[in-house]
Design goal:
The chain has about 200 residues and is an all-alpha fold.
C-alpha cells in the first residue's frame, strides 16, 4: 500500500501516523531507535505490506497486467489503491479527507526529527497536498512519472497509467473487496502490538 492507506490504517495518534510513514523510510531492526509508539507504527506498516503482497486479491490484481508489466504491477497497484481510497474516502472513514490530510501535515510539521528522506519530501507533500490529490485519477500521471525517476530502470513504468486506465473497473473491484479485509487485519495487528507492548 502507499502513503494514504498506511496513514489511514496506522491509527489516529501522532506517533502512529509518523510510524505509518516511517515504514517507507526506515529499514532494518528498530531496537529502540525511535519512541515506542513510532516503532509500533513501523512494525504495523511492515505487517500491512507483507499481508498485502501475499493476499490472493492483490495477486489476482497483478495477474490482470500483461506479463511484461508484472514486475512493476505492485507499484502501480499501490498507487491505484490510494486513488481508490481517496476517491471513495467516505466509505472507509468518518473524518473528512481534507481534515485528515491537514492533521497529517501538521503532525509532520511538528516533528523535528523526521528520517532524512522524509524530512526532504514532507514540505512538498503538504504544499502540493499529495495525499488529497490522489482523488483525481489524472494525478496518477505525475505520481508514476515521479516514481519512475527513482527506479534503476525507469522505462519499467512507461505506459503504466494507460494500463491502469484500461483496467480501472476490475482493479477498483479488487480494491473494494480487498480493503475491508486489510482494515480488519490492521485492526487485529494493531491490537496485538499494543498488547505485546503492555506485556513487556
Amino acid at each position: 500500500m502507499n502513503y494514504l492507506a498506511h496513514l489511514h490504517l496506522g491509527g489516529p495518534r501522532p506517533g502512529e501516523l509518523l510510524g505509518s510513514l516511517y515504514g517507507d523510510f526506515v529499514k532494518g531492526p528498530l531496537q529502540g531507535r525511535w519512541p515506542a509508539d513510532i516503532e509500533a507504527g513501523i512494525r504495523l506498516h511492515r505487517q500491512i505490506d507483507a499481508y498485502t503482497d501475499s493476499h490472493p486479491l492483490v495477486l489476482q490484481a497483478k495477474q490482470r497486467f500483461p506479463s511484461e508489466r508484472r514486475r512493476y504491477a505492485g507499484i502501480l497497484i499501490d498507487l491505484f489503491f490510494d486513488h481508490c481510497l481517496a476517491a471513495h474516502w467516505h466509505d472507509y472513514a468518518e473524518e473528512p479527507l481534507q481534515q485528515f490530510t491537514e492533521r497529517v501535515y501538521q503532525v509532520l510539521r511538528d516533528e523535528a526529527a523526521l528520517p532524512d528522506k522524509l524530512a526532504l519530501i514532507a514540505p512538498r507533500m503538504a504544499a502540493q497536498d499529495w495525499l488529497g490529490s490522489y482523488r483525481a485519477f489524472a494525478v496518477m500521471e505525475q505520481v508514476v512519472a515521479g516514481m519512475s525517476r527513482r527506479l534503476s530502470r525507469p522505462e519499467g513504468l512507461a505506459g503504466g497509467v494507460a494500463e491502469l486506465e484500461r483496467l480501472y473497473v476490475p482493479l477498483q473491484q479488487d480494491f473494494r473487496e480487498f480493503y475491508p479485509q486489510l482494515q480488519a487485519f490492521a485492526q487485529r495487528s494493531s491490537t496485538g502490538l499494543a498488547d505485546r507492548h503492555q506485556a513487556s
